[in-house]
Write a structure and sequence with these properties.
3-stranded mixed sheet; 16-stranded antiparallel sheet; about 775 residues
């Protein structure tokens, strides 16, 4: 773009003075009318708003000069001339062009919208008046943003293209260049710590051949350096150095703009310790109780972090007792000579706060009652920060909402009342009416038709009517769960089902059998505590094994030994009970907490054809937040089953199997087992009466959807196997052999909650597959819950 030279600016100023001189040289006169000429886009009224002259005024040298200056000051005009025609004042103006469009090209690190917003703040935007002098400021503004990111070689070029109707198009081409790398990072003035120790605390660092495995970043930016200076300050303040200062920070860039040299000069000062800790003010609660919340004691090294956390704990405890606006102010009294600090926590609880009203918004489908019965903070009661946090957790665990936000604004005109505003964002109700095709590593391709909803008609009840047809199973089922069957929160689940299973397809063999099964039952869930639930129920099942000429010997022997009827039919009258401890913050993609379950099931000998067996199962899953959006999980399961009474052996459909996306990924479903659980004649799995599973998994948001609440990537390690305890025994040596028989795999996974159902992918590599195991590295499932 062509710029106006300094000499050109002098000539423009001379022309302006000449125009003023024409006015100043004219004889004064009284203005009878004013006419404006030269306008294209700007309204006449706008000119009159800024023009300090009107009919009846006397135009002389002073008023004319003021009028021209006022119109120039608007920035709308590039030229203004006042002329006289009789007693009529004629104002000739030349409008500056308007900015029709701004196009930014070449920017990759900073989005165009973000750049345009920054330009708008300095008055450069589409529709605004174009001023060439602004382009210098525009380029400077953009360059500053890139320099702050460490892109010192950035080049910015702007082009102005005239358009019709006195408009211009602006094009800004950006060559971002590469980020400058840190060649040298030096800290001077450190005595208490070595320079290498301090450099390890920082996020910035110099380039290393092992950079890929390092958490440090060698790309310089002003923001990153500022964050590291705060890290350095916090390190010293948390180690007792009260007088620590950062004296200077020098950043030097090489002429080619590729390398950066950073020198940080610091002053450590002396280290201070805690002399004593006191509590003062209106404590409200017993002093001994509050003292337990303070982690510092006499003789400890002074730590700003510990003081902040202690202050927060005291504030939260007072908030639990209703003092939501309590002010806890830690005041240090420093003894410079002895290098000691007397710390006093001044407590001002304020007034005890009650809840006036609870307002719920965003629940267009879910009834208010469904949300309110999960709230632990009541209207009219004393506010409790702990109960509010628990209320939010319980709403998240319903699984109906993508997001739950709770605010506690003060009631206008009061100091001791608040309202609680609960804002939810509902999930899309998938599966309410569904017909589709899915795939599972166990089932293969399946056709699914269902009417199901976790939040039936907004009541919070779970309703499902399903038909599934795959190469393995044909299933008709109905279930209904009322989580608040009673006002006390006792849940009830009713279920009916009919299933046919082709075990040949499930085990990928030709030596197996098919089964037909139908049944139903009822299950109740009783809340014991806020986190513990006891469940108990009754279920009836009738199963028929359909054998063929090629059915394995083990299955035929089971029918001969256990069936009282010629058609190999069995009944099972099952009583079940479980105790679950659940502290997860959410049911879908939990970030913290754990779920521990201990369950038992016994089939009672009510009839001659009834199976007599029992099952025990222990499972746990723990969620540990690593940082925002990243969660580390561990899980395990131990299951055991056996027969009693007249039953000779455990039914094949009640035995445990392993392999597949539900247990050990990387192995084909139901195809993992020790030698004791494999038919040596056919090499097909027989299952076992004991199973051990373990898993470690790192869950994180995908890079392409960092703000998504419906998808996760994972890195995992799975382990497990099934055993026949009759052959295994329970002595120490054989149990060690069982541990050695565990199968392992590791891989990557992807989970996605879609509007048509949950979907999961995994790719795993088995570590120690045996010849009788069946490997399947890639597995995915659609239509079954995660």
């Amino acid at each position: 773009m062509k710029r106006v030279s300094p000499a050109g600016r002098v000539w423009l100023f001379a022309l302006l003075l000449a125009a003023m001189c024409r006015v100043m040289a004219a004889e004064p006169f009284t203005i009878e009318d004013i006419r404006v000429e030269g306008l294209q886009r700007i309204a006449v009224g706008t000119v009159f708003n800024y023009l300090p002259l009107k009919k009846g005024d006397v135009l002389d040298d002073k008023s004319g000069t003021a009028a021209i200056r006022a119109l120039y000051k608007t920035g709308f005009f590039s030229d203004v001339v006042l002329e006289r025609e009789g007693d009529v004042l004629i104002v000739f103006v030349k409008e500056r062009p308007a900015i029709a469009s701004i196009e930014i090209d070449g920017n990759e690190k900073i989005p165009s919208e973000q750049l345009k917003d920054s330009l708008k703040r300095i008055g450069f935007a589409e529709g605004r008046v174009f001023d060439r002098s602004m382009l210098d400021r525009v380029e400077l503004e953009l360059k500053q943003q890139y320099l702050a990111m460490g892109k010192y070689s950035v080049k910015i070029k702007s082009t102005v293209t005239p358009l019709e109707r006195n408009r211009v198009a602006i094009r800004i081409d950006i060559a971002e260049g590469s980020e400058a790398s840190i060649k040298h990072l030096h800290i001077v003035g450190a005595k208490a710590y070595s320079e290498s120790e301090l450099l390890e605390e920082l996020n910035l660092g110099t380039h290393s051949p092992l950079q890929f495995f390092s958490s440090q970043d060698d790309k310089y930016s002003k923001q990153k350096l500022g964050a590291d200076l705060e890290v350095l300050r916090s390190h010293y303040m948390n180690s007792g150095y009260l007088n620590f200062e950062i004296l200077s920070t020098q950043v030097s860039v090489t002429p080619d703009h590729h390398d950066v040299y950073i020198t940080i000069a610091i002053f450590e000062g002396n280290q201070y310790r805690i002399k004593d800790v006191k509590l003062a003010g209106d404590l409200i609660l017993p002093e001994e109780e509050l003292r337990k919340l303070i982690s510092l004691k006499s003789g400890d090294i002074f730590s700003r972090k510990e003081i902040t956390e202690s202050t927060s704990r005291i504030s939260e405890r007072l908030g639990d007792s209703g003092y939501a606006f309590a002010n806890v102010n830690p005041v240090p009294d420093v003894d410079e000579e002895k290098r000691e600090v007397s710390l006093t926590f001044f407590v001002d609880p304020g007034k005890r706060v009650t809840v006036r009203r609870i307002n719920i918004t965003g629940n267009s489908k879910t009834q208010d009652e469904v949300l309110r019965r999960e709230l632990r903070q009541m209207e009219g009661g004393v506010i409790s920060t702990e109960q509010i946090k628990r209320s939010r957790t319980r709403l998240n665990r319903l699984g109906f909402f993508e997001d739950v936000n709770i605010e506690t604004p003060t009631v206008p005109g009061t100091q001791d009342q608040v309202d609680i505003n609960v804002a939810v964002k509902e999930r899309q109700a998938f599966g309410s009416l569904n017909f589709g095709i899915g795939y599972g590593d166990t089932q293969g391709f399946l056709i699914n038709s269902s009417v199901s909803q976790d939040n039936f008609l907004g009541t919070g009840n779970r309703f499902s009517l399903d038909f599934n047809n795959s190469k393995v199973n044909t299933v008709y089922s109905f279930s209904m769960t009322n989580p608040y069957y009673t006002m006390d929160g006792v849940s009830r689940t009713l279920n009916l089902s009919y299933r046919t299973t082709d075990v040949n397809a499930a085990t990928n063999s030709k030596y197996s059998y098919t089964t037909d099964a139908y049944g139903g039952g009822v299950m109740f869930g009783v809340p014991v505590t806020e986190y513990d639930t006891m469940r108990y129920g009754f279920n009836y099942e009738n199963t028929t094994i359909n054998t063929t000429a090629s059915t394995s010997r083990q299955i035929l022997d089971f029918c001969i030994d256990n069936a009282s009827a010629a058609d190999c039919s069995f009944e099972a009258y099952k009583l079940s009970s479980s105790l679950t401890h659940d502290t997860r913050d959410k049911t879908i993609f939990a970030d913290s907490g754990n779920m521990i379950s201990l369950s038992g099931e016994v089939a009672t000998p009510i009839s001659d054809s009834a199976l007599n067996f029992y099952k025990l199962r222990y499972s746990h899953k723990n969620y540990s937040p690593v940082r925002d959006g990243i969660t580390f999980t561990t899980s395990g399961e131990l299951s055991y089953a056996n027969v009693y009474g007249n039953s000779q052996s455990l039914a094949p459909f009640e035995r445990y199997y392993a392999g597949g996306s539900r247990s050990i990924r990387g192995y084909r479903s139901n195809r993992v087992g020790a030698l004791s659980t494999i038919d040596p004649a056919t090499n097909i799995p027989l299952g076992g009466n004991a199973r051990a599973l373990a898993n470690m998994e790192l869950l994180f948001r995908p890079p392409f959807a960092e703000k998504s609440n419906s998808s996760r990537l994972s890195l995992f390690i799975d382990a497990g196997n099934v055993y026949d305890s009759a052959q295994l025994g329970w002595n120490k040596e054989l149990l060690l052999d069982a541990a050695h028989e565990l199968r392992y795999s590791a891989g990557v996974g992807f989970y996605w909650i879609t509007p048509v159902g949950p979907l999961s992918f995994s790719y795993a590599r088995p570590f120690n597959a045996q010849p009788w195991d069946s490997v399947e590295r890639f597995q995915f499932t659609l239509g079954t819950p995660y």
